[in-house]
Design brief:
This protein has about 375 residues and is of the alpha/beta class. It has one domain. About 45% of the residues lie in helices and about 15% in strands. The chain has 14 helices and eleven strands. Strands 2, 3, 4, 5, 6, 7 and 8 form a seven-stranded mixed sheet that branches. Strand 2, helix 1 and strand 3 form a beta-alpha-beta unit. The N and C termini lie far apart (about 80 Å).
Length: about 375
C-alpha cells in the first residue's frame, strides 16, 4: 500500500507579508527581586526563543538579565551566581548593609566570570541599558559598547544605588552615573515592547495578586499596584529573602511568562523560529525585506502549546534552588540562628562588632 503521507505537502507555518512588527523586551530594575527574571528567562528560552532575537532593554538587575539573555549564558550558572550573591548578603547580621559586604564588587566578579570576551560584540545595538546621569538625574540609554570592559562599566553604573552600593558613583564614558531605575526603570523601546516586572501592576509579564487593583503608583515608568504583596517585594529590592522564598519567586516568573505566552499565542514551533531567525538576518541587510506571518493552524505550534500547559521550572534549575535551601538550613551556625532569640542577640552585639567590621572594611578597601 502506498504511503500517502510521503506525498503530503509539508506543514507551512509562516509566509511573507508586507508588514513589519519586531517584538522587543524590557526588564525592570528590581534589586534582589531579579531572581524573578531568571524564571522569565527560563520560560522564554524554552517556549519563545524567537522573542530573544531582537532588542532587549533594562535597568539595573533588569539590564544584567537582558545582557545574559543576549549572550545566551547557561541559566544554571546564572542561577547559581544569583543564589551565591544572596548567600553572601544574608550571612551577615546587617545583611547587605554590612560594611564588609560590597554588592558592586560581587556583581563585578560575576560579570567578569560569566560574560564571554566578545560579549560587547554580541549585544552592541541590541542591548539598551538605562542609566541616570549625575548631576541632573537625566535618563540616558546606551546601546553601543566597544569592549567587554565598556559593557561591564555600563552594567555596574546602571546598578549603582547611592550609599547602598558605595559612596562614589561609577564613571562611564567620561561622566558619572547611577542606577537607571531612578529615572527610567522600565525603558520601552517602542509600542511593540513586552515589559517584564516582578511587581504586580500593569506590566505585560508580572505577578497577578489577589487584590482590588484599584490603586497604582507609577515610579520611573514602572507600574506598581498598592498591595501588601508589593510592599514585601519593595523591601526585597535591597534585602534578599530566604532561598525558599527565592524559589517561589523564580517559579512565579516562569508561570507568569508562560501565561502571557499562552494568552498572546506566542508559543511557536521550531520551523517558525528558524524562519524568524533567517528573516532577522536578512532584514539587517535589506530594509525592504518582508515580515512573516504565522499560520494559526500550524499543527506543530499547536502541539508545542499543548505540551507547555502545566509546565514548571526544569528539574536542573529546581535542583540548584534545593541545594541552596539545604545549605542554608544545615550547619551549627544556621541551627543556632533558628533558635528564637538568637537573631536578637546578634543585633544586640552590634555595638561591639560593628566597629571591627568598619575597620576591616576600611583596611581592605
Amino acid at each position: 500500500m502506498t504511503n500517502t503521507n510521503l506525498f503530503r505537502e509539508p506543514n507551512k507555518c509562516c509566509r511573507p507579508v508586507n508588514r513589519r512588527r519586531k517584538i522587543n523586551l524590557s526588564f525592570a530594575g528590581c534589586g534582589f527581586n531579579g531572581i524573578y527574571h531568571v524564571g522569565v528567562a527560563v520560560c522564554l528560552k524554552k517556549y519563545a526563543p524567537h522573542l530573544l532575537l531582537n532588542r532587549i532593554s533594562g535597568a539595573s538587575a533588569g539590564a544584567i538579565a537582558a545582557c545574559y539573555l543576549l549572550c545566551d549564558l547557561p541559566v544554571s550558572s546564572v542561577t547559581s551566581d544569583v543564589l551565591e550573591l544572596v548567600r553572601l548578603a544574608r550571612k551577615r547580621t546587617l545583611g547587605p548593609f554590612s560594611p564588609t559586604f560590597n554588592v558592586q564588587d560581587v556583581l563585578e566578579q560575576g560579570l567578569r566570570k560569566n560574560l564571554p570576551e566578545d560579549a560587547h560584540l554580541r549585544v552592541s545595538g541590541k542591548l539598551h541599558i538605562s542609566l541616570t546621569q549625575l548631576p541632573g538625574f537625566r535618563n540616558v540609554i546606551v546601546s553601543r559598547f566597544y569592549s567587554k570592559e565598556d559593557l561591564i562599566r555600563a552594567l555596574l553604573a546602571s546598578s549603582f544605588v547611592p550609599f547602598f552600593s558605595g559612596s562614589h558613583p561609577p564613571k562611564f564614558n567620561g561622566g558619572y552615573y547611577m542606577d537607571g531605575g531612578f529615572s527610567n526603570n522600565l525603558p520601552t523601546l517602542d509600542e511593540n515592547t513586552i515589559t517584564v516586572s516582578p511587581f504586580c501592576g500593569e506590566t505585560d509579564i508580572c505577578p497577578r495578586d489577589d487584590s482590588s487593583q484599584l490603586f497604582h503608583v507609577n515610579f520611573a515608568n514602572t507600574s506598581i499596584e498598592v498591595s501588601k504583596q508589593n510592599v514585601h517585594r519593595i523591601i526585597r529590592i535591597l534585602y534578599p529573602p530566604k532561598p525558599e522564598v527565592l524559589t517561589k519567586m523564580c517559579m512565579q516568573g516562569f508561570e507568569d511568562t508562560l501565561r502571557f505566552l499562552h494568552n498572546n499565542n506566542m508559543i511557536k514551533c521550531a520551523q517558525y523560529i528558524a524562519v524568524e531567525s533567517t528573516f532577522l538576518v536578512s532584514s539587517k541587510l535589506d530594509d525592504d525585506t518582508e515580515e512573516i506571518e504565522h499560520d494559526p493552524e500550524c499543527k506543530d505550534c499547536l502541539r508545542q502549546r499543548q505540551e507547555a500547559i502545566g509546565a514548571t521550572l526544569p528539574e536542573s534549575v529546581r535542583a540548584i534552588f534545593q541545594e541552596a535551601v539545604d545549605a542554608a538550613n544545615k550547619g551549627l551556625v544556621n541551627w543556632l540562628f533558628r533558635i528564637p532569640g538568637m537573631k536578637i542577640l546578634s543585633f544586640l552585639a552590634l555595638p561591639y562588632t560593628l566597629p571591627f567590621e568598619i575597620v576591616y572594611a576600611t583596611i581592605t578597601k
